[in-house]
Amino acid sequence: MEIVIKIGGKNIDFQNENYFKVLVPLIREGMKLALVHGGGPQISKFLEKEGRETRFIEGLRVTPPQDMEIIEMVLSGLLNKMLVGIFHHQGIPACGISGKDGFLFEGEKYYLASEDKKVDLGRVGEVKKVNPRLVQVLWDGGFLPIISPVAADKEGESLNVNADWAAARLAIALRAEKLFLFSDVPGVLRDMGDKNSLIEVLPLGEIETLKEEGKIQGGMIPKLKMAEEALRGGVKEVFIGEGKEMENLSLFLSGGKMRGTRVVL
Asked: Rounded to an integer, what distance in angstroms lies between the CA atom of residue 156 and that of residue 98?
C-alpha cells in the first residue's frame, strides 16, 4: 500500500519522538510511505528575528524574494534533517529531500485570482509536474522519503509551495491509495467556533456550498482544493485531521476510527 502523509509545522515537536513511533511498524511491515512536511511556525519565527512581516492570503504565505532564502533554509535544511534524525534514532533509514531534488516538483509562480485581477504572492509556487522516480528509487532501496515542499521553476529558482498541494500532487503521481493531511485543525467544521460540529464525511459536492456560506476559510481552502484534486486524480481516500490523531493511524488503516474529516467523491 502506498500512502502519502503531510504533517504541518505545528505538529513537529522535536522533543517528542513518540509522535512518529506509530509510523515505525507500518514501515517495517513494508508499507510504502512518503512524508511531506510543512514548517509555518518555524518559518515565521526566523522571519520575525529578521524583522520581516508574515502575511497570509487564503492560507498561502506571501513570499517576497528576499524571504525565500530563509524559507528554504528552514524547510529543506533545519526541519527536514531534524526529521531524518528522529527516524534514524528509531531505526528507520530515512532520506531527506526537497522538491527540487531529482526534478521531483517542477513548478511555476502561482497568482491568486481576485475578481478581475491577479494577486502576486511573490515566490509562492504551484507544482505543475511531479517526477516521482526519486521517491520510487528510495522506496525500492528501503528508505523513508521525507520531503520539504520547495519546487524549482524553469530557471531552477526556488518556489515556496503549500505543503498540502505538494502532498496531494505527489499522491496522484505515485498512485497512492491514501492521502492524510495532518495540521492544527480537527477537520472541516460546520461551525468554525464549535469543535463538536465536525463533519466526519464530506462529499465533494458539498464543498462549494460550505465556501459560499463562509464555513471554509483560510488554510482549509487549499486543503479541500487539493483533496478534490487528489480524489479525482485516482487517490482512493483523503483524510483531514489534527496532527495528534496520527497516533491512531494504525487503527484507522485496519478499519477503525480516527477523528477528522474523510473527503469522498
From this structure: 13
Residue 157 C-alpha cell reads as: 529558482
Q: What is the pLDDT of residues 88-129, one digit of tens each?
A: 999 999 999 999 999 999 999 999 887 677 888 999 999 999
Q: Do the Cβ atoms of 103 and 35 come closer than 8 Å? A: no
DSSP 237: E
Residues 6+ apart with CB under 8 A from 89: 17
* Angle, helices 65-72/40-49, rounded to nearest 10 degrees: 120
Burial label for 163, CB within 10 Å (0-12, 13-18, 19+), is buried
Cell representation of residue 86? 528522529
Rounded CA separation 76/74 (Å): 6
Nearest to 218 by CA among 61, 75, 111: 61
The structural domains of the chain, with segments of one domain joined by +, span 2-264
- Model confidence at 17: pLDDT above 70: no
- Per-residue pLDDT of 220-249, as tens digits, reads 888 898 999 999 999 999 999 998 898 899
CA distance readout (Å), 166 to 33, 145, 171, 172: 15, 14, 9, 10
Q: What is the enclosing helix (H) or strand (E) of 171?
A: helix 163-174
CA dist 171 and 244 (Å) reads: 22
SS3 of residue 4 by DSSP: strand
Helices (H) and strands (E) counted in the chain, each on its own, are 9, 14
Residue type, 214: G
Q: Output 117-122 pairs: Cβ under 8 A, ≥24 positions apart.
A: 119/57, 121/57, 121/60, 121/61, 121/62, 121/63, 122/62, 122/63, 122/64, 122/65, 122/67, 122/68
Q: Which CATH fold would you assign to the domain 2-264?
A: Carbamate kinase (3.40.1160)
